[in-house]
Amino acid sequence: MTLDTLLQRADIWRGDRLTTGIKAVPSGFAELDALLPGGGWPQGALTEIMMPRQGIGALRLLMPTLAQLSQGDRWICWVAPPHIPYAPALANAGIDLSRILLVHPRGQQDGLWAVEQSLRSGNCAAVLAWPTLDDKAILRRLQLAAESGDALGVLFRPRHFVQRPSAAALRIELAAEIDGSLSVSILKRRGGWAVGPVHLDTYLQTDGALALHSGAATATGNFQSRWQ
Amino acid sequence: MLLCNEAAQGAGICSGMPAAAARALAHHLIIQTRDHKAEQTALHSLAAWAYQFSSQVSLHPPYALLLEVRGSQTLFGGRAALLKKLRTGLAELGYKVQLAGAPTPLAALSLARCQHEQMVEEQAELAAALAPLPISVLDWEQTLLERMDGMGVRQLGDILRLPRDGLARRLGQQTLLYLDRMLGRQPDPQDLYRPPPQFKHRLQLPSEVEHTQALLFALQRLVLELCGWLRGLGAGIQTFYIALSHREGTHTSLCIGMHKQSRDAETFTTLLRERLERLELQGPVIAVELRAEDIARLDAQSLELFDKTDGEGGVDLLDRLRARLGDQAVQGISAVAEHRPEYAWCHSEPGHSRKDINGRQRPLWLLPVPRQLETRSGLPQFQGELKLRPGRERIESGWWDEQDVARDYFVAINPAGARYWIYRELDGERRWYLHGIFE
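Output (structure tokens, whole complex):
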């Protein structure tokens, strides 16, 4: 019996089929998309990105997706970013700046309110936030808000939250590799087990200009032009 | 006593009773003096609101409004739908109403006054419909009504049966004209109400209010009046103003802005709620005022297009965020053609960005203020020794506005693999600074 005939059998159950109903936006990195249910970041859901420190490329990992989402008519909302999202770099990454919304709330309470409103509104394609609190109930609310607003909700969080329970549909952990690549481990995903890590070259540096790793660029051809 | 609530009725108080007698029945009775001026204002507010249902509204003080609906009812999906809208809207405004309809203004007013909610369709049916009404529904002088009572005339039917010449002789020519108008035999032109070009409604609160939730409740009524007025004019607004009057004579003013024209009560209320929840009241509030000036045409068709693209409850996310967090807290960004990194970006109105492409490698995070780095044996440090990547970018410019910079920028990596954008001053002490993070 070949593998093909085996897969034709009705009583054979394929794990990856579980994920066919999931709406996802390609990450732009083929190796990563292969591991993500639906082939990308979960749309209408919360994603938690755990990172040991700033500067290892957590935002860069999202750039191809944000560039694609910025071509639509919904906002890409940044709630209380820890530094200034630098417009020249975002423009270089192919993001339409006119779709970016920066929200600077005064305190944590307002910040969470803004995240929830943005996720729920249906006006945002993506909502990025850097919450430092540890509250299961709030994560659950944000996950529900992302579902009802069909938004890609991304929370960047310090790595020590890895052990805490979370309602996010996707949880990944980042680490910087010695060779400059980014290691991505999937801690939780819908319809699958923890897996990884994969190693991604989020950029190849050539004389100051940016270029995407070839593997990622071929996965989603429409990103390619913007990165050349 | 003119009117009393259920508690007062329970104590045996009823309309027509002298105040002293009522007080004797209930010690804690609260008596509000009738305010004719406030009644007039309320009737005008109501006319402004009702203008959305008909362009022919007339005032019949002290407490009647007349709407010509034959022309406009099809716009609202028929008579029944129009009446339902009226009834719901008036209840939301907190009014108790008697609705009645007839082919002539005076017949409609008489039917409404007798508290029978009746709709008479045809002129031919008028006499029969009016006949059983008591003569007290006529807004005639009391002496005239008493004289008729003396003649044994109790119902409208009794008068209508009287011979015309006798009626004119005994009660005057005016009464004949009145009855002819009521039955549609004579035209009855009305003084039409014209809505004011500005909206400014004030509501005296029945008691001092110290909680924003209660304020919102009061303001909601003004918002409904505002939206009715706007619909009547086929207009929308982008800004409205609230003034809260405090007991001490001071005021708190609020301005609520939206980035699109609107006349949606839910939108206004939501934005108001966000703003009020953030507000610390300076003191108890005794009156609220809602004001709107710069109206712009907004037809129903373009509104429907809006509603489809808007998010939850039609309230725009931007407006909602700004109502609660303040205008400055919600921004867009632009990339600016400028060599100095700190000036190569700026905030801009969301949705309107400059997109000057620089093309050079830039970090996704910029620090608002460059952070000076320590050095060890002349090498910059940030959580360990920073290794400079090959390539250096010299940025020198800005001498003309005394914000000149002269720096060499590098990409640097620390032992933990984090990537930074750092520079070294070209002049002076040649210090090292951290300016960005390659997140």
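The two ends of chain B are 75 Å apart (CA to CA).
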